[in-house]
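BUG: 3D viewer hangs when loading the predicted structure for this chain

Environment: internal workstation, default settings.
Expected: structure renders.
Actual: progress bar stalls at 90%.

Input used:
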Amino acid sequence: MKLFKHELHDDFGTWPLAYIRYGGPDFGEIAAVAEAVGDGDDSAFHAAWVATGDRMFAEAQDVLAKGHRISARELFLQASVAYAASYHPLFGAPVDPRLVSAFRKQIDAFDKGLALGDPPVLPLRIPFEGTSLPAYFIPAAGQADTIRPLVIQVDGYDATVTDLYFASAVAASQRGYHCLIFDGPGQGEMLYEHGLALRSDWETVIRAVVDFAVKLPTVDPARIALSGASLGGYLALRAATGEPRLAACIADPGLWSVASSARVFANRLGADLASGASLSTLDQGVLDRMFATIQADRSLRWKIVQRGFWANGAADLRDFLRLIEGFTLEGRIQKIQCPVLLTHAENDGLTSETHTVFDALRCPKKIVCFTAAEGAGDHCEMGNRSLLNRRVFDWLDTVLV
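Structure tokens produced before the viewer hung:
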């Protein structure tokens, strides 16, 4: 379903459709934003979403003043989604001040909405290497004071805590799981506000998160699952190679290497890379052809230059290729001991290595496939996220017994 006229705008502007089921903005509100953007540019896209967020936030304040806490909670959380949707086309370094402004509004609305819950959910900080990561503990519905299994949710390249909450944390809570969501290096606050780049050794990040989680009084330390979507599919698997306290791991989808597609791209442009040769050693002529192709394609330019360079802290294309080669399960995947669930959506290009991951695993494992006929065939099953959640938590119910 295409609502926004420009492809990049539609990619990000339709994310909130996946959140309707879990309390996000309704279809009419999303369609109204698309109508307001029309043929407009990235600035128009940003402005339309921010205006929607501002309207929802103002209404939330108004109804809260009248004592309508449930309505206010819903509106604050929906405003958070609107603000979060506004700034993806603005990605890149130096950081656009409009992105930072919208992100701060997003988190303010998110905090206000969660604080109105029963029980209230308040922001937390996870100590990590001299700094701290923003986090939220979402309790199992009706069982906030009960010791329950925990699902730790991991962002991908583009998501933040707001997306994690609506994409899976609400569903986890409804199914009786506590859920811990956070922004790690290269994600959300840690990138936007602090400039902390992505890192491939996610086992180091998750070790700190699990250290924090096991001290929470209602978490069962023997039943902690890790779930990651998009790039988070790699990050979750990589973390599981070095964190033995995990009782289960979900990768949506299973990613073997971030650099695989770049190697195919380079060879198509005449690189003829030998097996095992580093992308950072590419001939400058090939790099120049790659960069020209990237710059000529709006989607590629956003993914690689605006997002990829920025999130990875890369100075240029050669540096970017060098950095992403570190994101691989080569030589590590056999270390995973806990049961693993991999997803495979039929139209998602990131699933190309899922069966490679599956074959290399030496632990209990399962692949769950999603199809276009189910409305779940695209990236991260965003067209039918509730189906993904149902199947994932059905599997977890059997694993975390």
